[in-house]
Transmembrane protein (Shinella pollutisoli), 300 residues
Amino acid sequence: MSLYSSGVSDVGVESSTPALAWGPVIGGAVAAAAATIILLLLGSGVGLTMVSPWSGDSASFTTVGVTAAIWFVVVQWLASALGGYLTGRLRAKWANVHTDEVFFRDTAHGFLSWALATVVVVGMAGSAFTSLTGAGAQAVSTTAATATVAGTAAAANGDAAAPDAATDYFTDMLLRPQDLASRAQADNASATAEISRILMQGAVNDGVPEADRAYISSIVASRAGIPPEEARARVDQVLTQIEDAKNAALKAADQARKSAATAAMLGALSLLVGAFIASAAAALGGRQRDDEEAALIVTR
């Protein structure tokens, strides 16, 4: 026995019953959000058993990250299926409605339930993130205020203002002495500070010029009491290590960028799949609800 008319009925007559039933949508969304929270807490508990402060007892960072990503996807899909199915089962029967229209309404209700649950879960996660960010910003503000007070106190005690860091390097170039050996032996603090500024300038400009390399080598030879060739080899070795560390940091940053991009795209794909699952589950739940009611009518 067919539940719905196969054609369009009541042409020109508008039904007083709305096509959108918010009750089942909200109920399914609440169930999906609650299931998401429960499953995420369960996953967090299991994930904490995979890490350990003891060497050799903890899983690798890659293993933990991949496992967490897979679990997030599974949680999203399971919660979407639960919310969509409940939405379809809880809605009332639409009488005198074409079967195709019933299917469309069920899938639309499942999609709306998924969307509402997603917004709720993301909103809760965003609130937690905002709280953490606010605490961090407050700590930074406190630190900045403390530094400002300290700087003001130092100025009040008569300390001279420090030169602009952007011009220190060029000032050093203008004031480089001819008698480098005697100065390097007499003023170790100034020599150390000047070398630091040269290295910082080289890091900014992607390399230390040859003149600066020779100058650093002269200071190292005077301070360490070694031949100029050995001092130059030491300087080149240190600069190579600095360059390697810089390249490693850039590689790590690029890898983090690629990982973030991949996670964002996979997250978007997972959400789209979750929306489809919720819509299909709602259609399944609605069909089962109508079939059971039809079977009950036949038995009567």
Q: What stands out?
A: The first helix runs from residue 22 to 48. The chain has a mean pLDDT of 77.
